């Protein structure tokens, strides 16, 4: 086995993570997961060596800071849910939606008020707690998150926006778990915005489970911008029942090292997912992003689109995994992974992996690692744009495919600003 | 008044694979002032596009001798973007397609490129100008929101080149075969756009194979190019004369030793 990181099994970690008045099922889950941590392997990210990262350097005394900083206060208007570390800064769901049975709350409230409901889904369908060491750590040490439940047949037109801030104003553990349940035939959009406040180096563990019941349609978008000193493990996964659909649009704009796993399990017949991810790696940063679609259901369809840009001496690896299980007749799995290199010293990789165990399926992939198109550059420059400006525009266009799927104009413009900032400053110093 | 002056221009292109270099332009002389309209005509493969791309600064072409000057300042050391900001514009034969960038944001960036960084054009002024020009060119509003040239038809691309010209307002515009692939109606629309630009502060150099374009945009001077040189200059009647005689006729009249690409086809003498 590869050299791997170990967690110091300090029982205080487990104790400190516990939420107030935890139901028995959650304490049991924590205990089971805790006992398995040492023996489970780390997850594999092909062509990324992250085993020396301080991903498991948790604080044995996790401090909670109850003040909500101004930089977060000023953003609150755009969100229905906001948290800073373990502190809930805002929950404001439309009364109309509450009347229809929609639930939006923090995890602590969820396990107290909706314990049975949460127990049905939490580490039950999308992600199993004992898949690897990092899933077990999340199950054992989870100390915050959100719960969104949209009952059957409810349609929500306005997007539901979640802001989840890692509080690094001090040494604090950030082990987040967000559970989204789409009842049968429900339809809604949800946005998850993750970021860091403060300068202290803490790891970030964040997990999202989306359970899409029959005929539901979830449009999920996310914009991640954890700080440079944050090492992040991100795991988002959808479980799709018959004819359910999840569209993902994720912008990975972290400044620090990241491993991310975005998966859709197409369990139901006729289920469908579109998974779009964009990422930029700058300076000395390393990011490994795996996107996987697993087709179990007949006539299920999954399409992966990953696009990334590299600057400086950074590394960015996209692994696209299309897996078709025996029995998934008529399944479709397509993927496209493209990486644009803006620096000769960067290391980019786009690996399509197809694992197919059924005959009557359609599967395909396209992958490229390339430099900027000189004809496009010349054309833009011939209109007076400087080379830097033209490069930024071509690069932004390259990532632009995901932009239009982010539902909140303000978050869209945040993503554009982040892309611009990274393109302008990301080459780093020699 | 501004002056664009090309003197004794020799240009080669290098074939990267074969590692050979071929001279295309063999001593071009041309002087044009703002307020004037020039046309360059010539047979295929004679260096017309090479001349326009070289003036604009396409790094693919190497100047081996001679000079290109704008108001007495040599452009040779300047990159394409610096030349554009100095007032040159090239309407290209094959504009690049760029997904993910809208026509509008590109044009705003281009308009702002020639303005001081602290004085960008206001959104309102830009949109007003854009609407006006879209109307002149019979272009629909959604052109502005579409990705730059992406999925545009041949005719839409040409119109879009002229739209950019009208928005950027350069001192000199070179129109490289703006008439190719346009039907008569579209040609008239494009000509209308160019003619609206006419002013004492604007000069046009049209590159074309056909006299037809000159019916809509009237040239002050017509230059005939053959074998990498300008071999004859005259007024608009020269174009009509050419249409009657053909390029081979003019070559023989001038006693030039130049091979014309399509000569053998018309005379039926077989390959060289």
From TrEMBL, chain A:
| InterPro entries linked | Fe-S_cluster_assembly_SufBD (IPR055346), SUF_FeS_clus_asmbl_SufBD_core (IPR000825), SUF_FeS_clus_asmbl_SufBD_sf (IPR037284), SUF_FeS_clus_asmbl_SufD (IPR011542), SufBD_N (IPR045595)
> Single Gene Ontology BP term?
iron-sulfur cluster assembly
Its family remark reads: Belongs to the iron-sulfur cluster assembly SufBD family.
Q: What is this protein called?
A: FeS assembly protein SufD
Task: Provide the SUF system FeS cluster assembly SufBD core domain boundaries.
Answer: 170-398
Q: Domain SUF system FeS cluster assembly SufBD N-terminal spans what residues? A: 76-161
Highest taxon above the source species: Bacteria
**One Pfam family hit:** SufBD_N
Automatic annotation (TrEMBL), chain B:
Q: What is this protein's record name?
A: ABC transporter, ATP-binding protein
The record's section on InterPro entries has:
AAA+_ATPase, ABC_transporter-like_ATP-bd, ABC_transporter-like_CS, FeS-cluster_ATPase_SufC, P-loop_NTPase
Q: Establish whether keyword ATP-binding is in the entry.
A: yes
Q: Which PROSITE patterns match?
A: ABC_TRANSPORTER_1, ABC_TRANSPORTER_2
Family statement: Belongs to the ABC transporter superfamily. Ycf16 family.
Molecular-function GO term, any one: ATP hydrolysis activity
Q: Which UniProt keywords apply?
A: ATP-binding, Nucleotide-binding
Q: Which residues form the ABC transporter domain?
A: 4-252
Query: Which Pfam family would be a valid example here?
Result: ABC_tran
Name the NCBIfam families on file: sufC
- Could you say which residues form the signal peptide? none
SUPFAM superfamilies cross-referenced by the UniProt entry: P-loop containing nucleoside triphosphate hydrolases
Organism whose genome encodes this protein: Lentilactobacillus diolivorans DSM 14421
């Amino acid at each position: 086995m590869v050299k791997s990181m170990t967690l110091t099994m300090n029982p205080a970690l487990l104790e400190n993570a516990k939420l107030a008045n935890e139901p028995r099922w959650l304490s049991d889950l924590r205990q089971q997961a805790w006992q398995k941590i040492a023996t489970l392997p780390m997850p594999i990210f092909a062509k990324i060596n992250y085993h020396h990262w301080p991903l498991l350097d948790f604080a044995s005394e996790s401090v909670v800071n109850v003040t909500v900083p101004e930089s977060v206060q000023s953003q609150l208007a755009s969100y229905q849910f906001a948290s800073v570390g373990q502190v809930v800064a805002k929950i404001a769901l439309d009364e109309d939606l509450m009347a229809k049975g929609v639930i939006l709350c923090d995890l602590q409230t969820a396990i107290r008020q909706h314990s049975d409901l949460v127990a049905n889904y939490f580490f039950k369908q999308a992600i199993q707690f004992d898949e690897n060491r990092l899933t077990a750590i999340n199950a054992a040490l989870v100390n915050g998150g959100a719960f969104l439940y949209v009952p059957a047949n409810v349609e929500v037109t306005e997007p539901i926006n979640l802001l989840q801030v890692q509080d690094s104003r001090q040494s604090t553990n950030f082990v987040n778990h967000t559970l989204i349940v789409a009842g049968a035939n429900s339809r809604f959009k949800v946005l998850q915005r993750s970021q860091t406040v403060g300068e202290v180096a803490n790891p970030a563990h964040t997990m999202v489970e989306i359970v899409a019941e029959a005929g539901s349609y979830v449009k999920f978008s996310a914009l991640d911008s954890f700080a440079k000193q944050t090492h992040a493990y991100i795991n988002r996964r959808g479980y799709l029942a018959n004819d359910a659909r999840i569209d993902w649009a994720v912008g990975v704009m972290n400044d620090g090292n990241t491993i991310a796993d975005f998966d859709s399990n197409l369990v139901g017949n006729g289920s469908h997912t579109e998974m779009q991810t964009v990422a930029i790696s700058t300076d000395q940063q390393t990011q490994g992003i795996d996107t996987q679609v697993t087709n179990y259901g007949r006539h299920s369809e999954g399409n992966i689109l990953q696009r990334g840009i590299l600057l400086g001496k950074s590394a960015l690896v996209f692994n696209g995994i299309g897996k078709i299980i025996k029995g998934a007749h008529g399944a479709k799995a397509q993927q496209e992974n493209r990486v644009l290199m803006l620096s000769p010293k960067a290391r980019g990789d786009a690996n399509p992996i197809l694992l197919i165990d059924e005959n009557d399926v359609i599967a395909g992939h396209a992958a490229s690692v390339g430099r900027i198109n000189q004809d496009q550059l010349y054309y833009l420059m011939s209109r007076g744009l400087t080379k830097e400006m033209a490069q930024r525009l071509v690069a932004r266009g390259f990532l632009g495919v995901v932009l239009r799927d982010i539902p909140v104009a303000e978050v869209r413009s945040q993503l554009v600003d982040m892309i611009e900032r990274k393109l302008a400053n990301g080459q780093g110093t020699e | 008044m501004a002056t664009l002056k090309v003197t004794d221009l020799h240009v080669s292109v290098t074939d990267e694979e074969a590692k050979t270099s071929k001279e295309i332009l063999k001593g071009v002389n041309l002087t044009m002032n703002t307020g004037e309209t020039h046309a360059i005509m010539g047979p295929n493969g004679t260096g017309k596009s090479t001349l326009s791309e070289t003036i604009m600064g396409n790094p693919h072409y190497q100047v081996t001798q001679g000079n290109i000057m704008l108001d007495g300042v040599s452009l040779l050391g300047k990159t394409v973007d610096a030349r554009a900001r100095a007032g040159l514009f090239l309407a290209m034969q094959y504009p690049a397609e760029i997904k993910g960038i809208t026509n509008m944001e590109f044009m705003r960036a281009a308009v702002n490129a020639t303005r001081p960084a602290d004085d960008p054009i206001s959104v309102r002024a830009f949109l007003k100008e854009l609407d006006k020009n879209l109307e002149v060119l019979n272009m629909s509003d959604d052109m502005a929101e579409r990705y730059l040239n992406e999925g545009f038809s041949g005719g839409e691309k040409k119109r879009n080149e002229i739209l950019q010209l009208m928005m950027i307002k350069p001192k000199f515009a070179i129109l490289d075969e703006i008439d190719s692939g346009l039907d008569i109606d579209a040609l008239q629309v494009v000509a209308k756009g160019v003619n609206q630009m006419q002013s004492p502060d604007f000069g046009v150099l049209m590159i074309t194979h056909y006299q037809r374009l000159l019916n809509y945009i009237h040239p002050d001077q017509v230059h005939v190019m053959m074998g990498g040189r300008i071999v004859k200059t005259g007024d608009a009647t020269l174009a009509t004369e050419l249409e009657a005689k053909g390029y081979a006729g003019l070559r023989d009249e001038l006693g030039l030793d130049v091979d014309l690409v399509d000569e053998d086809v018309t005379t039926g003498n077989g390959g060289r």
